[in-house]
Every structure is written in C-alpha cells, then in structure tokens.
Amino acid sequence: MKDETMGQEDAAQDAEACAEALESLDRISLDEIAFDDSGVDVQDEPETEAQSDDQDAGDVEPAEDEADHEDTESEAGNQPESDTGEETVLLDSLPAEDSLTRELPGLGSAPAVDETIAMGDIPLPSVPSAREAEVRHRKMSPKRRNLMVAGVVAVALVAGGAGYAAWNGYQQEQAAAAAANAHTMMSVQIGVHAAGLDCSTGSKIPVQVSGQDADGSSVSETLYVDEHGRGIKLLPGDYTLSIAASPIAADGTVYTVPTTKTQVTVKSDGQDLSAQATFKLKVPSADTVTDDQIDAAAKYAEEGGASSAAAAKVLQQAATARRDAAVNAVSVQKAQASRDADARHKATDLYQLDIPVEWYGKVATWQNGSTLCIYLGDDANTPLVTLVAVREGESFTPDEGDTVLGAANLGNGYTVYASGPVYPYVVPQTINGRTQNPVSTYPMDTAIELVELTTGNRYTYSQIKNDLVGKDGNADAATKLETDYLAQILLPSIKAQD
C-alpha cells in the first residue's frame, strides 16, 4: 500500500513537472541548468537523502507524507500574495456578461448569436505563483530536474542540428550554382570605334580570342561583334582579345586594324568590358588600301562576319571598287598638279621661279628679258610685283609709286629685286577718297582681292582698313604686311637659271 501511494504521488509530480516545463520553458534561468548535484539547494539535500533512507527502511507512514504534503500546499495556498506581486486569476470568476462575443464597430444592428460561449465556461490552466513554483522546485528530485534540463538541451541540440543542416545545404547550393556558372556561356561587351560602320549592312568585326576558361581548358577562336561591341559569348576565365581583320562597311570602307592586345577576365553574364578592352579602327585614305587588306576582310566576312558568303562577296567587290576609284582620283589630281606646276613655273634667261599657289589662277605674267611682271587677272595695269635682275654693284630704283618689297641673291653675280605698290596701304586711302600718290582708283571687289593676295589671305580688307592701318594710313606697318608675305611665298622660289 505504501509503495502504491508513493508511486501515484511520483507519477502525479512527474506529470505536473512536465506540464510546467512545457508551459514555462522560457522562465528557466541558466543558473538552474546543471547535470550534477553540486548545483542543488543545500536545504534539498538532507530532505532528499532522508526521504530516500526512510522510503528504503519503510519507517515513514504514508499518512504523514500526505499530511506534510497537504500542509505545505495549504501553507502556500494561504499566502495572500506571491513574492513578486503576481496573483492567480481564474477566468470562471469573471462576470457572465464578459463573454467572448462583443459588438463590432459599425455592426451594432447585427443580431446576437445564441450560441455565445461565456468566458467562464472555458477551463484554462492557471499560472503558478512564484511561491508555488519555488515549492515545486524544492520538492522536485535532482534526477527529475536533470531529466528536464536534459530535455531542454536535447531540444536545443536538435534546433542547432537543424540550423547546421540548413547552412550546409545553403553552402552546397552556392557551390552547385558556382559550378553551373563555370560551365555557362557568358555574354560580354567590349568597346569598338569604327566610323560609318553599320554591321546590319556591312560585315561584323572579327575578334581573336585566346586564353583559358575556368576549367583550365585552352581557348583559341574568332568571335564577331557589331559596331556596339556586342556578340561575344565565353565561359568564365581569363582571355586575350585582339582584332583579327577589318570589317567592310556597306560602301566598301576598309579600316586600319589596331595591333593592340588586351587581357580581360570574364566573371558574369552581361559583363561590360569596354573599360578594359576598347579598339579604335581608323579610316585610311582609300587609295592606300591594299589587295591583302581587302582579301583578309573578305575572308573573315565570309567565315562569320557577313550573313552569307554571297553577301561577303558583294562587300569585297564594293571595297575593291572604292579603292580603285580613289586611286584613279589621286592619279588625276597628280596629273593636274603637274600641269599646274608647269603653268606656275616661270623662267627668264637669268632665273626661274614658281607662282605662289594662292595666286595661281588669279594672276597672269608678262616677260621682257630678265624682267618678269606678275599682274592681277587680265589687267596688265594692275601689277602685284615686278621682278628685275641687277648685276652686283649696280643700283636698283623702282618705278614711281612702287616700293622695294624684297630681293633674292642668285649666287651667279646677279640679284633679283621685287617691287610693286603697297596695296594694304594704297587701297584703303584710295577708297576713302585720299589722293596721296594713288596708283589708280579701284572697284571695291578689286580692292578687296588686291589686299587679300598681297597679304596671303591672312587679313581682310576691313581688318587692313580699320585695325592694322587705319584710314589715316601707316605706310611702314602696311609695307611690312606685304614684304613679310612675299618673303615667305615668292622670294624663296627664285633660283638661278640652270
């Protein structure tokens, strides 16, 4: 009978302790967690040992145990308040009108539900006071407490194991994603500059790619990009990029291929590498393009730069025609330049010279022995400059109204003197009505042309009149403008006759 009563009491206490542990796990403090008897309250040890000894000897009466237990619980129950000021309140002690049904805002006219359940009808577990929890803690055996603590730790370990498993799974997912990316082709963009190129009508730019992908495999291939630098797809890795050949524009333009090489690292899809890899393809003079350049461009256009082999052939023909036309144009220009040079070249019995290019087509000449006059257009009465050869030791006096504008020593005992009107000085005075030694009067268009020719188009008539010379005239300043120009463009060409 004694053993049966003690077993029932232990079972009741175990059930109560388990319920309390489940409801109040968050209130277990760290100083209560221990797996040895050293952390047990000193007052518990004698009581526990005595109880164990008495139970073994059978000296304690069951009635006394129950009486003590009841007295202890009664004493705890008679406490007016707990140590922390907490009070146990049962919901069945509330008034009946405090039910679970209440009027909702805006729905005051809704009919009440007859099946309303009063809050007092719901049995809810009471929360033990601090004193009750203390008493239960003191009566709990160390073995039971250790079992409870072990349960808490087990739960923590399970939770920790679940967290580790989740983290490990995440790491594996990341590794799998990285492995997948290492075997996924990535689109990248480079920088290119090719004036006038439209790859939708011309051919694309061939890019030579060499290097190693993320697996360590060697890569060497030709890929094609449009005028925006798009079109390359590579596995992640390190590569060297260069331009393999020129594209061909729709009008037949062939570009100069840059010789630079650039190293890049491909890491992700859509990567913009233009900051590290930019290639500038310049447009050379069409007449300088060679057959080898056209053939190389056509080869890459056929292999992938153009939409088809037929389209590549058309572009090759356009490039050849453009080059040939440029060569012919240059040849014509050279022939014309040669004729112009012959026309500009003048010779006397003592010296020879070339009419300045700026004057060519606007002047004419007359010659008498070693004297050569260069005049404006068809007006022989409007000379720009007159050249006279004088033997060394002899003096030279220009015609009335003319000024010596320069001289060239032939090195054969003769000197050629250049003389003429100082038009930057004479013309503004004449137009303004001044009559200081005017050679003649001039129409405005003639006055403007004379000033521009004698100053090499470096100054306009308005500048000469308003800024450099002024209406009052300054012969020295005006003369310097003309002499400086003739010293640069005419006198250096005067040479002794062969």
Can you give a write-up of this model?
By secondary structure, this protein is of the alpha+beta class. Helices cover 40% and strands 18% of the residues. It contains 11 helices and 17 strands. A 5-stranded antiparallel beta sheet has the order 12-13-14-16-15. The protein has a 4-stranded antiparallel beta sheet with strand order 4-3-6-7. It has a 3-stranded mixed beta sheet with strand order 5-1-8, with no helix packed on it. A hairpin with a 4-residue loop joins strand 15 (403-409) and strand 16. Helix 8 packs antiparallel against helix 9 (444-454). The model is unreliable at 25-120 and 433-439 (pLDDT under 50).
SSE arrangement:
Elements lengths: L1 H22 L20 H14 L4 H16 L52 H10 L2 H41 L3 E4 L1 E4 L10 E9 L4 E8 L4 E5 L2 E7 L18 E5 L4 E2 L5 E4 L9 H15 L3 H36 E3 L3 E4 L8 E6 L2 E6 L6 E9 L11 E7 L4 E7 L2 H9 L12 H11 L6 H8 L6 H15 L5 E2 L2
Parallel strand pairs: 1-8, 2-9
Antiparallel strand pairs: 1-5, 3-4, 3-6, 6-7, 10-11, 11-17, 12-13, 13-14, 14-16, 15-16
SSE pattern: HHHHHEEEEEEEEEHHEEEEEEEHHHHE
Rg = 57 Å
Order of strands across the biggest sheet? 12-13-14-16-15
Question: What are the low-pLDDT stretches, counting only 5+ consecutive residues below 50?
Answer: 25-120, 433-439
Portion in beta strands: 15-25%
Number of helices: 11
Report the biggest beta sheet as strand number plus sense, adding barrel if it closes: 5 strands, antiparallel
The total strand number stands at 17
Helix content: 25-40%
In whole angstroms, the N-to-C terminal distance is 155 Å
